[in-house]
Amino acid sequence: MKVKVQKYDPSADDAPTMKEYTVDYHEHMTVLEALVKINAEQEPIVFDYSCRGRTCGRCAITFNGTPALACVTCVEENGDNEVKPLTGFPVIRDLIVDKSKVHERVAAIEVRQRAEKMTLEEINKPVDPEICKKIAPLEYCARCCVCTAVCPVVQSKGPKNYIGPTGMIAIGLRYYDPYDEGDRVVQAVQNGLYNCIMCGRCTEVCKALEIDHLSVWKDLRSAAEARGLKPADAS
Amino acid sequence: MEENKQMQDAHKRISRRAFLEGGALAVGAAALAGSGALGLSGCAGGGTKTSSAGAATKTGTSSTTDYEVYSTDLLIIGGGDAGIGAAMEAYEEGKDVIIIEKGEHGFGGATGFNWNQFINFTRDDLSWDQSKDFVLNELTNQKIEKASYETWPGDERNLMLRYSNLGNDVYVRKDDGSIAPLLDLPTIYGIYRGFPRHMNDCVHESGMRIIDRTMITDLLVQDGTCVGAMGIHLPTGAFRVFRAKAVVDCTGASCWVYGWSTVAPYSINSPDNTGDVDAAAFRHGCALIDSEFFQCDLINIEPTGIAASFVSGIGADSSCCEYICDKDGNFFFKGMDYASLNKITFTQTIAKCISEGKGTEHGGVFVDFSSPEAYAAIGECYLRNIDLWKKVFDIDVKGTKLECALEAYEHGGNPRADETLMAQDLKGYFLARGGSYSGSQGGTSVDVAPRNAALATKSAIKYLAGASITALDTAVVATEYARLHELFGRSGGKRPQEIRIEIQNACYNACQPAREIDKMNAAVTELARIRKEEMPKMTLGDTSLVYNTDWKTAIENYNLLDIAEASAKAAVMREETRGHNYRPDFPQQDDLWKCNIIEKYGDGDITCEKQDVVTV
Question: Which residues of A touch B176 (CB under 8 A)?
Fold first, then answer.
């Protein structure tokens, strides 16, 4: 099986180059397994990983042109198997990118906004079960940024126009959160809720299979419209 | 002597420059005379996250190098559950803190996995010895357990409330919206849906200084006292010196030592968990304790790419033990009193089956999901992964016999601690896990990690009131810098990845739960061979300083080897069946072994001895 990997050391190379390797294939072999094998048995390639189960996001790469998690994506015995760094992020070395700017923004959003500390009495009060069902899937966002890398709006207009699905999921989680006191609808509109073109590419690449991104955007848009917050130029 | 003087002079120049620049991060460099002489200069860190380390120079081609200096009251190493507990404790006290994280902050170690944690806690006012606290066993250091238990009295112990205030959501609810605990006993309360991501966010937003993607390679020890730590900024290769009045080690268990499949050991844990700081303390004279004990779970070993991964795997626990069978299809738990099975007897029973030759091809057992009852009993943590397996691997677990093995999700080995959780053998160095705290349980858990970290931090804060930042001994810095950079000059040996797998396989043979003495002795011999023959020649395949994973692995190998050897020798020494282990040559628990085993790092040798259990 052939695997092509993009290599780039900013301290030594003028530009990234592609390198092809031959790897013994086995059934259910993941991209991560191929990378570990090449690195251990052939020559150093630099990549990152941790959980092997789509929850840490550290192995996010671009596979055959599509953003993916190396740990839960299978190689194809007769395929191109082209591995490049995650689109749209600065490359530190080979396949490792720096996602810290997006991560800092998302972390700042997802901190719960409250005036007072929570009490046990408040926690023990019933919560609308429909709200619980909407929150639960969003908790599984790993912030791997595969969705943000595939998003045509982020990639063409930049994260200033649209924060991307990773950030919008964080806004959605706190919008549903009954204990949060921040104005998440304003925050969603500010961060480009209406610049999303509702193409659904985010849901296609997301390995947190329980997340239905567009249903969250729709809830946020309904809330925005109820308050007259839909931008005049939004379609 | 001349070299030392020049280093001191260079350091003074840099300090003056840092002063003139108003405390901003300043980088200085001084080329030192003498061929092959190690050039060192300091750069005073103004305490920002920014590093000015720029273009990398290849070591060996230049005699000029830089290091960065950061200074703080309290240095917290590791940003996981314990690191969060330590950080929040220090934050409440208004202390100056630096948190070091090996990965990107929020994404390092097991706390960097965004997983659905089961939160459980003792919720009433029973005393520590009546508490049924998770770690209590015959080998527990009772003084530490008492102090840890009493760290958070009353509602402070309620982790549900604590985590709600750190951003956790509504927890699991019934159809009527009321809260749905899984455990609701007079002593213990437990509920799903604690996502560590929220706590990481709170630490991030607190404004504490976080220095991430930085691997600690050694503690800074001067005059027998821990006064900080040293390490490498992975993206640039820059050498960093962290000076502190006290250090809290929150690095977690060294589970990356436990065998090897294709991308990971037989452990759910993270590649960050290589015991870097434990091993450094060990080399500085801290005895390790309880290293023979690991804590295990039963989980899939195929598909190999997600073997032993808790967050994508499927496994079984004692609640569905009647569906577990050996290679011949015998359901060996049947007839046992299921109610009396706990985690330890569950693991021991499987280990006994494997050691009797009834294990599967890969050293595990089968979980028979062809029974609808077994399929229905798949644990909450594994349910989510059924759809993933179908989508990614086209595997439907329903109706199959799934081969599963015992993975080690925790390790007991840690420097021994006193009841304040300061290392018994090193002043100023505090331990969030605390060696001897967990006894034969084989490590702590997510439930006690933040509480222990809070105790360690409270103790460190008391200690640092009487401590001061001592003058930096540049010779100590030079020695560590030279140790790391010497690795670039080697040739003719195996690459670090290959040697690491040799260490992991040997450790697994000695420390997996079905412990056979011949294999264990062979493993100890193999580790000695690796130390003598492979390590001195270990050769990097990469000369860059930018995120050099060969270099990183080589440095980690020294730590893994020390941890592996200590664990393997202690496992051989303990001639009984206790904890998660089964020894066919000593199949019973034996009161003669109601003691802890400590390991000491001597002149080129690691030795074990017995130590009495500390009781109240």
Answer: 126, 129
